[in-house]
Amino acid sequence: MKFYLPTKIYSEPECVKDHGHELASLGSHALIVTGKNSSKLNGSLDDVTAALKKNLTAYTVFDDVEENPSVETVMAARDTGVSCGADFVIGIGGGSALDAAKAAALMIKNKDCSWELMYSASPADTIPVAAVPTTCGTGSEVTGVSVLTRHDLKTKVSIRHRIFPELALIDGKYLMTASHKTVVNTAVDALSHLIESGINSMADTYSDMSVFTGLKEWAECKPYIDGRADIDKAAAQKLMNVSTLAGISIAQNGTTIPHALSYMLTYEAGIPHGAAVGAFQSKYLRYAEKYRREAVLEALEFRSTEELGEYISSLAPISVPRDLLERSAQSVMNNTAKLMLCPYAMDDEIMQDIINI
Question: Is the domain of 190 the same as that of 58?
Answer without folding.
Answer: no
